[in-house]
Write a structure and sequence with these properties.
alpha/beta; 487 residues; 5-stranded mixed beta barrel; 32% helix; globular
Amino acid sequence: MPSVYIKTYGCQMNERDSEAVAAQLVAKGYTLAASEHVADVVLLNTCSVRDNAEQTALNKMSSVIGLGRKERPGQIFGFMGCMAQSRGKELVDRLPDLDLVLGTQKFHRAAEYLDELLAGRRKHIVDTAAETGSEGTIREHLLNGSAKGKSVTAFVSIMQGCNQYCTFCIVPYTRGEERSRSIEDIVTECRKLVAQGVREITLLGQIVTSYGRRRPLTPFLSPSDGERVSKPGEGFVQNLVAPPLPSPFLPPRKEKEESPFVQLLEAVHAIDGLERIRFTSPHPKGYGDDLVEAYARLPKLVASAHLPVQSGSDRVLKLMHRGYTRARFLQIIHKLRAARPGMGITSDIVVGFPGETEADFEETLSLCREVEFDNAYLFKYSQRKDTPAAAMPDQIPEELIEGRHARLLETVNAIGKRKYDAFIGQLVRILVEGPSKKNSARFTGRTPCNKIVLFDGSERHRGQLLDVKITRTGSFTLYGDPAIVGL
């Protein structure tokens, strides 16, 4: 049977999609190749959040095609994911030897289309059309990814799409409007994973805290003249489903109504054998009191929150169409830390948004110092096609963006080092995931607050909740010794 190599760019949603496509193909008889040099099929799952991510994927595919046509005649090449969705047939026009362009709602058709291409029944396939129900089409998980054991952790996609329409972001245009799976469907998938040995599940969505909501798509309005400058579609989302379900999927109803996302957390929390629940990526607007309280009362929900703030300036947040203020963001942080002491908090920040002044940037620096994020992912603003921010005045010069990025990175790293160094000498409990990717002699696990811990272990530790004593730190990594040996 044919072999396939899949390379993934971008976020955890893309990782999950690649896993699902790989598992789907393996189920159809394909084998997974170690590299593009020995594969019959090469698929690149792409990201469009930044121009650099697109250019990297395009350059990679151009190189792979050039080499493949010389050394492996008949090799099939395909793009999947966000760039495939955004650019469509343009990719085939640019790379005529490209065989497949598969959009974000078509991952479940990968095996079908590859069969046709390999059999020579079709020369090129480009499919980026919307498909009703695509959010629930792929449930396959690749659980034998390591050579010695099954996965301890798994991603579960609970929804697709985004209705936020931040002015800098292309995701609503590549992933479509929000579409949620039912709680019953998600819980059934999670139970199967736990039965196969998974002990930690990460719930995924573009804005995971919007799960199951119906709300209007609100266009961005220019603060100066109220002119509509985005294209968010019309009307209301009609196909989001998170209806109340009978036992055993939901606990008894409480007097105070909870958001659909908190209801889902409770339902997943009730699964026997599951040890930990994480989720990403949320939006600050989704952190109502019910979600904050869930951290205090659901022990399987780990003490970790990734809260993308994007900017510390209220003026820039408004231009970004984020829907909250600096004060509101800080209020959420204070509530989370009160609900679960020791909470690990990370964030996303965009540097160089159009019109960002030095004063705006200083507001972001001061926010980082006030919050003291455990880590933050910093992004240099990148113009994305058809997004409102791309047409805004006062685009920031690249050299200024580079300088601000370096200053912010220095601040974030200094804060992170202090917070990580504070773990030295502490006893922490980790869920052991398996060998380290960089050094197979070491094993790796994560604390509840999402710190990576490396230790000298063995295969018997995989899947265990293990107490380790932290002895030193690296770059956003902890090193420790097992406090309990011979388990």
